[in-house]
Every structure is written in structure tokens, then in C-alpha cells.
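Project outcomes to date are best conveyed with an example. Our students and postdoctoral researchers have been running inverse folding experiments weekly, and each run begins with a structure described purely in C-alpha cells. The record below, which covers 164 residues, was selected by the lab manager from last quarter's runs and is presented without edits.
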């Protein structure tokens, strides 16, 4: 884990004049921090400095339903024929909007598709229309299932459980 050294105040050091005193003053001003987030007393200042990206809670923020990933809206396609290719999926799903990414996993032993794929759209409308139209449709003679990859569940109620 990397250490981060912060110097609290600007220190004007003249090494020739003070010698060890200036080094001790510098050491007093240095704060050593380890780990992620720098502890409970630091607040969230490190996030402001680094400028992390975040997804704003918008139209689909707090309610149950599909959830946007960092890149876009991802559909999970199941029961995909083992001999299907990326071009087959692209041809079928590109009718409903611009596809940002297609991810297919192959079985190492056979080299065939594992039976599922992830398809990413940039907008919610494109992904929703593809999901509605293609769920239960046929691809290479096999019925596929299309659903959201990331789904935010209903909020859990806070019930206390009693142990006897």
C-alpha cells in the first residue's frame, strides 16, 4: 500500500542556517497517511482532489428497476446458441440503437460461446426497446432471453429480529 505525505503549511527552510532545527520543523509539518480514504477525520477531501467520476441519481436513481453501469445500460442475453458470433448478435441488436460494446465469453475447452452475452447501449431508450422486442425471440434457431444486467432491488424494510 502506498504512503502519501502531506505538508500542512508552506515551510521556508534555510538548511545552512538552522541545520537540524529546520529538518525537525519540516518533520512536524508532515502528516503521513496510509490506505484508502485517509481515515475517519479526513472527510471527503481526497475525492475532490482526485476528481472521481460518479453517476448522478436521475430518472431511475432511487426506484427499483434497471440500474446504469458506469459505461451505459447493459442487457444480459441468455440461451445464446453456442455457435453464435459477435456479428450475429450485433446484427440482431443494432436495429434498436447504437451498441457501445458486446461481450461474449467463450468456453476454453471447446472454443464455443458459453451461452450468454452482455450487450451495452449508450441510452436507456435503446436498451429498453431492444429488451422488449427481443426477449423471447429466436437467434440461430434458439429462443433467447433478454433482461437487464444490473437491477436495483426494492428497498429493504428495517425490521428488528428478536433472538430468544
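After processing, the design step wrote out the following sequence:
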Amino acid at each position: 500500500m502506498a504512503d502519501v505525505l502531506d505538508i500542512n503549511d508552506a515551510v521556508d527552510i534555510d538548511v545552512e542556517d538552522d541545520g537540524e532545527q529546520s529538518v525537525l520543523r519540516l518533520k512536524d509539518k508532515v502528516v503521513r497517511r496510509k490506505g484508502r480514504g485517509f481515515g475517519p477525520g479526513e472527510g471527503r477531501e481526497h475525492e475532490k482532489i482526485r476528481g472521481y467520476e460518479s453517476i448522478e441519481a436521475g430518472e431511475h436513481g432511487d426506484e427499483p428497476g434497471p440500474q446504469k453501469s458506469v459505461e451505459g445500460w447493459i442487457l444480459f442475453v441468455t440461451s445464446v446458441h453456442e455457435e453464435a458470433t459477435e456479428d450475429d448478435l450485433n446484427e440482431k441488436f443494432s436495429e434498436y440503437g447504437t451498441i457501445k460494446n458486446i461481450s461474449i465469453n467463450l468456453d476454453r475447452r471447446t472454443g464455443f460461446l458459453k451461452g450468454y452475452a452482455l450487450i451495452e447501449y449508450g441510452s436507456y431508450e435503446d436498451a429498453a426497446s431492444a429488451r422488449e422486442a427481443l426477449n423471447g425471440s429466436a437467434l440461430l434457431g434458439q429462443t433467447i432471453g433478454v433482461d437487464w444486467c444490473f437491477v436495483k432491488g426494492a428497498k429493504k424494510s428495517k425490521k428488528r429480529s428478536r433472538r430468544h
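Residues 16 and 107 are 68 Å apart (CA to CA). The beta strands are 3-7, 30-34, 65-66, 73-78, 99-106, 113-121, 138-139, 142-143, 145-148, 151-152. The training component of this project remains on track.
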